[in-house]
Amino acid sequence: MDPIYEKGQGAAVALAEAATVRPARSGDLDAILAIRNDAIENSTALWTDTLQTPAEGAAWLAAFLDKGAAFVAEHAGEIVGFGVYAPWRTLEGFRHSAENSVYVRTDRHGLGVGSALLDVLITSARAAGYHVMIADIESGNAASIRLHERFGFQDVGTVREVGIKFGRWLDLTIMRLAL
Ligand SMILES: CC(C)(COP(=O)(O)OP(=O)(O)OC[C@H]1O[C@@H](n2cnc3c(N)ncnc32)[C@H](O)[C@@H]1OP(=O)(O)O)[C@@H](O)C(=O)NCCC(=O)NCCS
């Protein structure tokens, strides 16, 4: 288990209560991009090695902002996490199925921020008329699997060795919540 998480347990409730989740704005881009690029560089949460440039990040974020589907968690004046959702697949037959992404700054893992963000994503997607929410999770990502379980997502299967990063195969666990 992540040692930051173990150390942080006592403070979890306090930070989760103090963190505010609000709709993201274009001015949040730098903070969001720093969290996202850190995950690209140092984790198997995002299956790419290519960091996003500010221009690419702006275009990526704008698509979510247009739909009111991007949120940030703020604590003590700093952005400590973000969450977005979008249709799971691009073909229009998938339009009632959303896929979520939740990212918390590494030094704030295990303190309730991811839960605060996912709660808002679920409420927002439900209000927007989505029928199902999906999370595609690298199978070794215990924190993300637990986060989604606690909101009622069910593991609907694992697809073995469909990704590769850091020189090893990655399995994909798909989790589903009926909204
Ligand atoms: C996954 C992530 C978003 C979770 O956010 P978080 O703020 O750390 O999670 P929370 O503190 O809200 O905890 C949510 C649940 O996960 C559990 N958890 C947190 N970290 C954990 C860990 N390292 N191992 C196992 N469980 C963990 C918590 O105990 C809690 O469950 P509980 O209610 O049963 O106690 C965060 O760890 C993160 O940003 N990771 C890197 C990016 C990533 O993997 N994103 C998801 C891509 S699918």
Give your account of this protein's structure.
This is GNAT family N-acetyltransferase. Residues 19-179 form the N-acetyltransferase domain. It is a single chain. By secondary structure, this protein is α+β, with helices and mostly antiparallel strands. It contains 6 helices and 7 strands; from the N terminus they run H-H-E-H-H-E-E-E-H-E-H-E-E. It has a domain at 20-133: Gcn5-related N-acetyltransferase (GNAT) (Aminopeptidase, 3-Layer(aba) Sandwich). The chain has helices at 3-8, 12-18, 29-42, 54-66, 113-127, 142-150, and strands spanning 20-23, 70-75, 78-87, 97-104, 132-138, 154-165, 168-178. It has a 7-stranded mixed β-sheet with strand order 1-2-3-4-5-7-6, with helices on both faces. The relative contact order is 0.17. Coenzyme A binds at residues 1-2, 5, 39, 43, 45, 102-104, 109-115, 135, 137, 141-144, 146-147, 150. The site of coenzyme A has 25 residues, from strand 4, helix 5, strand 5 and helix 6.
Question: What is the strand and helix layout of this fold?
Answer:
Elements: H1 3-8, H2 12-18, E1 20-23, H3 29-42, H4 54-66, E2 70-75, E3 78-87, E4 97-104, H5 113-127, E5 132-138, H6 142-150, E6 154-165, E7 168-178
This protein binds coenzyme A.
Coenzyme A (COA) is lined by residues 1-2, 5, 39, 43, 45, 102-104, 109-115, 135, 137, 141-144, 146-147, 150.
